[in-house]
Amino acid sequence: MSRKLGILGGMGPLATVEFMQKIIAQTPACSDQQHIPMLVSNNPQIPDRTAFLISNGDDPYPVLKQGMEQLEQAGAECIVMPCNTAHYWYPRLSNTCRVHMISILDSVVTEAQQRGYRKVGILATTATMATRMYQTKLAQKQIAAIAPEQDQQQAVMAGIYAVKAGDVEQGHRLMKPVFDALLEQGADAVILGCTEIPVALAETVFLQPEQCLDSLNILAKACIDWATADSAELVA
């Protein structure tokens, strides 16, 4: 296993570590040498993505681009961002990136399509919801989307920031009722579309895997597929 994966992380740092653990746990390896080499930029100082998109905070793009370039210079052959909201800048970054990039949004929507889902709920940051990143891509695949109500969305954001602050239990208490409500509205499954959410709902992911589209886990699998593909598959 020699292909080097670059991880543009820190958004937040706990989610980045969880993402790495998911890659390691699922890689078909029998020794250290069979695992995927990872170059990690775990930079928590990247400006808050939601603050920029919702309330005129500092623009994260220059710091994201700098981190991407540092990973390229360090030898990364593929770069991923384990942050859904940061994918607002994915088109700009991928257009200038010199190596392959994998989109967490495309990976999740493709998984939903492959599972045959026709209607899915979305748990994500307020910025991800407002920019309709998931809704647009789901509509392109003829998959209907269900969004939380305003008060539910406020609970989701409070839960996300609780996880960022290290209070995973509070994140679970705030987000699990919203997850359940989306299923009650007819969702086949729920996109856990912020990388803090699978951390908070880890028990739910374990107990109800078919009703969870875990964005962290799906991106981890896409990275393993990339690293283990033969050269012909990468060119295709």
Automatic annotation (TrEMBL):
One of its GO terms (molecular function) is amino-acid racemase activity. The lineage of its organism: Bacteria, Pseudomonadati, Pseudomonadota, Gammaproteobacteria, Vibrionales. The keyword Isomerase applies. Transmembrane segments: none annotated. The keyword Transmembrane does not apply. Belongs to the aspartate/glutamate racemases family. This is Aspartate racemase. Keywords: Isomerase. It comes from the Bacteria. It holds the Pfam family Asp_Glu_race.
